Each structure stands twice: as C-alpha cells, then as structure tokens.
Amino acid sequence: MILTLQIEPRILLSILHSELVTELETAVHAAKEAGKLLHANFHQPKHVDEALHHDLKLALDKESQDLITGIILDKHPTHAIYGEEGLAGDQSSNHQWIVDPIDGTVNFFYSIPHFCISIAKRVNEELVLGVIYDPMVDELWTVEKGGQPMLNGNPVSVSSREKLEESILFVGCGKDEEALTTGLTRFKKGSLRARKMRMMGSAALGMAYIACGRLDAYVEARISLWDIAAGQLMIEATGGKVDLKPHANNPDVYSIVATNGKIPIEEIL
User: Which are the contacts of 83, defined by CB distance < 8 A and separation ≥ 6?
Assistant: First the structure.
C-alpha cells in the first residue's frame, strides 16, 4: 500500500518561506564576505587579468566570485552557480544562483567608490531572492519573492515622481559600437527633458537606487543577466517595472528599461 502525504497549503508556504529566509541569509553572508575582500583591497594595487577597450577583468573579480561560490555551495551543494566569472556546482539543478562578484569593476580599479556585489537566485527560471551590497558605504539591499525589499533592514519603495522633468535617469552605454551609439543618443535626448542624467558604471547599484527611490529609471541596450537579476526582483517588488528584451544572439544579454512605473520613459527611447 502506498501512502500519499498531503501537506496543507499554508504549511507548504511556511516551509518554502523558511527555505527562502535561509537562502537569503546565505546570500547576505556571501555578499558581505566578498565586500570585506573588496573593501580591504580598494586602495591597493590591482592585478589586471584582461584589459579591453571599454572594460577590465581583475584577479579580484575571480577571487570574489570564488569566495561567494564557496559560501553558497557549502550550504547548498546541489545548486548551480552562474556568474560573470564562470560556472560552478550542478548545472542541471533547477536552483541557480546568479552572481556578479564586482559590478562596476572599472570604477573599482580607478578607486571610484561606486561598485557592488550582486547575488540573485532563481528556481525554474523564476527569480526568488536578490541581494545587492555596496561595501564602501555598507548599504545592503535585500528582497525575497513576495516580500518587501529592504535597505539595511528598512523597507524601501520606488519614487512617486511622475514627470520626466522631475526625474533622474541612469543611462548605460554598453561596450559595443551599436550599444554605445544608442546609449549616447538616449543620453542626449533625455538630457533635454529630465532633471538630470547619470552614467554611473554599475547597473546593479542603479537598479537598487531605483528600488529605494533615488533614481527614477535606467535604460541600456546591452546588459548581462548577472548585472540586473537581483535588481529586477527588487524594482518589481516595489511597484516599479522592468522590461527586458533578450539579445538575438545571446539569451542572457538584454536590452533593459527599468522604471519606477510612473514616468513616461518611452519619451527618451
């Protein structure tokens, strides 16, 4: 005789919530440990692994991701890691952690204190948690599916600004010629309407700033999944909107329009 165990929906939800809390704690721990590493090396000479025209790869990028990977897989050994610096864990798992060990590497290299660690997790392609940590000012954004986004433990929300003329917009330019041209055109167009435009060098922090009301929108023609995954969940959980369109030749590269859900961003596209 086969016995079927039936779990009440409320109990199942409680179990799932408990798992998310534990996983969020893991992500926070990993982000803060990586933050300690980056903070300690901020004013030190940095070893460049690869220098491109519009980008850099540092030894600390890999070291930071290895540190994060070790912490996550120690707690969740059957899960997968998908990071800017490579893959780890069981890639067949439905539980995938999306890691950007330094979002804003060029800022970090030039000792500009505007960069962060971004960690998200998705299950069966659905985002369930996100953490963004700025170690230079010790600001930690956290969110879990169905929960309230937090900044250092305090609830946050998108701005209430509705007029483009009152808004601050963040425009990214990407790295290839087409994306650069698109970004600069948008920057010029937006400058004629918005209160201020910004090019800040960290997509994840830009999205965290939208989630807590500091910025009102972010647009970029080419951006990678690990840059935006945590921020997407945060913005959407606070009532903002994130529109992603996959790149034709790379499903994990997107064009993005992220807003507080109120301003008419299509006016600068």
Answer: 65, 68, 69, 97, 98, 99, 100, 101, 226
pLDDT tens column, 167-217: 999 988 766 777 677 777 887 887 878 899 898 999 999 999 999 999 999
Q: Structural domains in the chain?
A: 9-154 (3.30.540.10), 164-268 (3.40.190.80)
pTM, 2 dp: 0.89
For residue 133, the tally of other CB atoms under 10 A from its CB is 26
Burial class (CB in 10 A: 0-12, 13-18, 19+), 50: exposed
DSSP for residue 101? E
Residue type (1 letter), 245: K
Side chain identity at residue 89, one-letter code: G
Alpha carbons 243 and 261: distance in angstroms, whole number: 11
d(CA 214, CA 235) in angstroms, rounded, equals 12
80-98 pLDDT per residue, tens: 999 999 999 999 999 999 9
* Nearest-angstrom CA–CA distance, 199 and 177: 17
